[in-house]
Design brief:
2 copies of one chain form a homodimer. By secondary structure, chain A is an alpha+beta fold. Chain A has 3 domains: 85 residues, Rossmann fold; 61 residues, 2-Layer Sandwich (Dna Ligase, domain 1), CATH 3.30.1490.20; 164 residues, ATP-grasp fold, B domain (D-amino Acid Aminotransferase, Chain A, domain 1, 2-Layer Sandwich). The first copy, chain A, is 27% helix and 29% strand. In chain A, strands 9, 10, 11, 12, 13, 14, 15, 16 and 17 form a 9-stranded antiparallel beta sheet that branches. A 4-stranded parallel beta sheet of chain A has the order 3-2-1-4, sandwiched between helices. In chain A, strand 1, helix 1 and strand 2 form a beta-alpha-beta unit. The termini of chain A are far apart. At the A-B interface, helix 1, strand 16 and strand 17 of A face helix 1, strand 16 and strand 17 of B.
């Protein structure tokens, strides 16, 4: 139990601490401000883009216990914008202030084996998977799962980083070397028709709500666009939402979660979960009364969750690298620029959303 | 001509200076951030609520020429959130950096006589009005205009402040004393059916766009609620938009303007204009693809104006004083809390907007 009272609803004017100062922290800060909250960003890197719209920023290492304690003393609740936040930092904060979502969500989402064991354990389908600790495990696993397959590091993967695809068992030595001979998971290839995701939220009172599932298109492992609604039958959309709710309840979760799913001929397969606001939920900013960022802030502050129904259909497109400069000419889209310094190739610099009347 | 090139389009990452750190500056800052701009607030008062979401804040007096010059050196364009910004401060900035909207808009809107002369001069209807410099003027004007009438200070009025109503000519001495025996204007009472407002914008290239007119309800001189669409015939709504465009063009205006209008049996009468984003345009945040705040930022940065069409009907309601705490229970409205310190009675602390499908 945290030192500060974990059960009370945080009133207007409370102070939210966010670990991580990227675009998700930035958009969380804006939503928190809309609810009258003050925001402090904790970020080791210089000039985090979230700091431009936050009340305060602490620039310190996640290993700096003193800085973490000072940060905790200035805030009423802590959250994070990325699942790879160091567990040690969360433990330091957690002794002093509520951290939401909690430790269990981080443990599950930081390790692909623990995540898949958790999902299987609550009866959800995942890709076939085998834990790989050495090269012998990999060749044995390829014998069981077959090729094509995907080798992923157990930890710290994102946006297609930390993974490589094997078309054939012959590629095992190269793949093992590519990933750095590190604890990994071999996943069987799922022959999916489409990729969808559900952005759902769970409040401190256990209330669960979800935004309508969106359909995702990836390029080179990076989300390119999300279309709402996904072109799936209503029954399948409902299944996706129920499945997300099962995950939230099993984790006794507080906040917003992103659940990536494959649609296959035999039903939904969970690809991965992200214990945070999610890129595929950015469309909610412009097509819903209350968006994923505000829903997250509401949840972690103990407020009732808001009405996330959508008033419009939408297509959200990411702007990578220098693509961001195109927004200066756009007049028919809602544009969101992240204020990052250098438009490196592939870097998420912004996104834009086009609306159309709800179909 | 300003020292910095006034004609170029400001790219992503440019720096916008805002005179005034209240809720309008705050919501401008959020919109500017969404376009990838950095924002610096200039505000004499301590802890301006806009600073919570801005990159930087200068706390200094509008008479502090050194602070104004330093501020100008750090920004690419300046704007303001209130029409009563001291002209001297704007002159200091204007020598160093573009200030948008320009000086003419401020001169017109800071003085009710100049404003009404300007409006009459471009053929628009206003309430009958007479300039009052001494008590003799007032009694003479009451003889011409009759009662009921409204006595308003020429300068520095807002939210019903600086004005008093005369039901009868006998009330002239008390009214003259109430306003502080200061240069004023006596306005004839307009028998209006409803009050509407148009929020319009003009770009650096002369392009004019307008949001759909909203219908306003005031209480005690303070805006209580705005309903969109206003319950007026389409032709009248078009007249209102054209009239706003005439004002913008006549002022060679750059930015967003709020035009308050009375609907009367004989047509539209201009109540007043505000050379800034306007409370009655807050509904655009939640019911339009691009809102009044972003439209203003687009205009002053030389970007093409965005699509401000509305996807939903809306009712925006102001939260005054302690009413703001009600948002902690609201789940079916988009809430906007301003982060101000003390919830004094009548103080604008936030607003909320409810949407309904476009009728």
């Amino acid at each position: 139990m945290a030192a500060k009272d974990a059960a009370r609803r945080l009133p207007i004017g409370s102070r939210i601490g966010i670990l991580g100062g990227g675009q998700l922290g930035r958009m969380l800060a804006v939503a928190a401000g809309r609810l009258g909250m003050e925001v402090e960003i904790f970020e080791p890197a210089s000039e985090p883009c979230a700091a431009q719209v936050a009340t305060r920023v602490t620039r310190a290492s996640y290993e700096d216990v003193g800085a973490l304690r000072d940060f905790a003393a200035r805030i009423d609740v802590a959250t994070y914008e990325f699942e790879n936040v160091p567990i040690g930092a969360v433990r330091v904060l957690g002794d002093l202030v509520p951290v939401r979502p909690g430790m269990r969500a981080l443990e599950v989402s930081q390790d692909r084996i623990i995540e898949k064991d958790f999902l299987s354990g609550i009866g959800l389908a995942t890709a076939p998977y085998v834990a790989i600790d050495d090269f012998g495990d990999l060749t044995a696993a390829l014998g069981r799962i077959g090729a094509p397959a995907i080798l992923k590091t157990r930890r710290f993967g994102y946006d297609g980083k930390g993974q490589t695809r094997l078309s054939d068992a012959d590629e095992a030595p190269a793949a093992w070397e590519t990933l750095g001979e590190t604890p990994s998971v071999l996943e069987g290839f799922v022959a999916f028709e489409r990729e969808i995701s559900v952005i759902a939220a769970r409040g401190m009172d256990g209330q669960v709500v979800a935004f309508d599932p969106g359909e995702n298109r990836h390029e080179d492992g990076i989300l390119r666009a999300t279309t709402i609604p996904a072109a799936i039958p209503n029954g399948l959309a409902q299944d996706a939402v129920l499945l997300a709710g099962r995950i939230l309840n099993a984790l006794d979760y507080v906040g917003v979660i992103g659940v990536e799913l494959f649609v296959t001929p035999s039903g939904l397969v969970v690809n991965e979960i992200a214990p945070r606001v999610h890129n595929s939920g950015h469309w909610t900013q412009d097509a819903c009364l209350i968006d994923q960022f505000e829903q997250h802030v509401r949840a972690i502050c103990g407020w009732p969750l808001g009405d996330g129904s959508r008033h419009s259909d939408a297509v959200m497109t990411n702007l990578l690298g220098e693509e961001v400069y195109a927004v200066e000419e756009m007049t028919g889209a809602a544009v969101h620029v992240y204020g990052k310094g250098t438009a490196r190739p592939g870097r998420k610099m912004g996104h834009f959303t086009r609306l159309s009347p709800r179909g």
